[in-house]
């Protein structure tokens, strides 16, 4: 995505000098936006905005491929944090937003759509009229793959939790995205305070209660993204927890002991942490040129 957003930014000769009005839908740039969405199934939106937050060109993913958003439906996104952050990002550097839920017209989009936004500033010849290019990457497919890896049966649950304790992947989908959905109670520290305290003091480990055994490990999904710095500095330190919860009865049961599933659970956590980190690195980071 970093390569694609930089490519679009290099097409400044296709951007009209006057950006006070939307870019025509029959323009070459509009055709390129549409084609980029069509060719990349995970690209949910490709947009060009002024630094005052106003969209002037936008292509959305649609059932039939891609759709150019009419001028009457373009939105002002000035109040969205990523617009301000991207505008402050040094020229030539790519901005990566956190993974969170997409918002349209001030409301969380339904069905829920987790996205990462990749943006770059576009300099123009007119003072105080710089632009911002944004690609929205839809993380639904990736999170579905992670849920599939986490499927473990009735006696074992696996979870992906943010560094603030909110579920990204939870045993019950209703617990997910509590921060944005206003569900303050849906946090790991409320679900199991002892486990949360243990996790705050270690990057990986194991904790037992009378009923459960937990193994956990931190994963830094963006730590290998080369562009991180400046406004992205915090993203490189973003971490999540991968957690496995197993019933004590299952852990000590015959199948677990004979099959060495206890040891395998720890190995699975290590493997999953690598999978999550690698997936985001490959999907988001720009490959370095040889």
Automatic annotation (TrEMBL):
UniProt keyword terms in alphabetical order: Membrane, Transmembrane, Transmembrane helix
Species this chain originates from: Marinobacter nitratireducens
Protein name per UniProt: Diguanylate cyclase (GGDEF domain)
InterPro entries: Sensor-like_sf, VP0354-like_sensor_dom
Gene3D superfamilies membership: PAS domain
A Pfam entry, by short name: HK_sensor_dom_bact
Transmembrane segments: 264-285
Annotated Histidine kinase VP0354-like sensor domain residues: 28-219
Top-level lineage group: Bacteria
